[in-house]
Amino acid sequence: MKFPLTMAAIALAALMPPADAAALQESGDPLASARWGEMQKAFLAGQQVLFDPRVKVSAPSTAENPLQVPVTVDATALSNVREVIVFADFNPIVQVLRFYPAGSGAYLGFRVKLQQSTPVRAAVRTADGLWHVGGTWVNTVGGGCTAPSAAASSPEWQQRLNEVSGRQWSEGPASGRLRLRIVHPMDTGLVAGTPAFYLEEIAFADAAGQPLMRLQTYEPVAENPVFTLQRGALAGPIEARGRDNNGNLFQARIAP
Fold first, then answer.
1. What's the rounded Cα separation, in Å, for the pair 41 and 45?
2. How far is CA 221 from the centre of its chain?
3. pLDDT digits (tens, 9 = 90+) for 78-119
4. Where are the domains of the chain?
5. Which residue from 30, 35, 75, 76 is spatially nearest to 55, judged by alpha carbons?
6. Is beta strand 107-112 parallel, antiparallel or unpaired with respect to 62-63?
7. DSSP character for 25?
8. What angle is formed at CA 71 by the lines to CA 67 and CA 76, rounded to 5 degrees?
9. Cα–Cα dist 206/234, whole Å
10. CA angle, 166 then 196 then 181, to 5°
């Protein structure tokens, strides 16, 4: 069932390819989740919402490993993106992460823990205050949020905590991308005897100190998280700084 669009949505539709414009809607969850109303109230209360095919959330339709589900959010087709919220409707901890593009594109790849089959969504706020929402269903055997991390059984993780490795690509199909991995257990606090212990914030900047992206992460991000950014034209090293919820800090420099 299609729903009438406001003047703002009609103006957007006029600038889009016909197939994408036909997919715009402002009411009725296209993923038919019983929890969409709760999600809208919790994250987007009082704001105009548009289900928008230009917000692309990519993930496997069936995830064999619920502890490491790869997800990519690509909102680079939108202009003036200010904030992106990623959440999973049926996770016990719903909010996965938020990111704020600056000098980078509105693009982020990462991995998430899923407790059960669920929609995984991205809500993208543009400068006009409109929220553009995209998402996909991921089916999984579940248990990702309540399983202990591999670090819990390893005596080495404390020595390697917040160790960062990374790479930039300047050629080929992945040109302009930055990927880094951070050693961290990302404990959800839902395993008996194991408190929540997770990365909270990461900031990326170029060699001149100009911000590229600020990233806020929460418990459902997978252990030893891997993040992929789309910077565009590379111009020198990238600085990454961050902290976890216990106040542990890290800093790394990633050269091209």
1. 5
2. 9
3. 999 999 999 999 999 999 999 999 989 999 999 999 999 999
4. 7-254
5. 75
6. unpaired
7. B
8. 160
9. 9
10. 5
Q: What are the structure tokens assigned to 165, written together?
A: 């490795």
Q: What is the pTM of this model?
A: 0.90
Cβ contact 128:250 at 8 Å: no
Structure-block tokens of residue 174? 């992945």
Tokens found for residue 160: 């390697």
d(CA 42, CA 54): 23
Strand partners, 98: 85, 216
DSSP code, position 222 = P
Report how far Cα 59 is from the mean position of its chain's Cα atoms.
Answer: 11
218/196 Cα distance (integer angstroms)? 10
Rg (CA), the chain: 19
Q: Are 139 and 117 in contact (CB under 8 A)?
A: yes
Cα–Cα distance measured from residue 191 to residue 152, given in angstroms and rounded to the nearest whole number = 11
Q: What share of the chain is helix, strand, coil (3-state, %, to 5)?
A: 10, 40, 50
- pLDDT exceeds 50 at position 60: yes
Q: Which fold has domain 7-254?
A: Immunoglobulin-like (2.60.40)
SS3 call for 41? helix
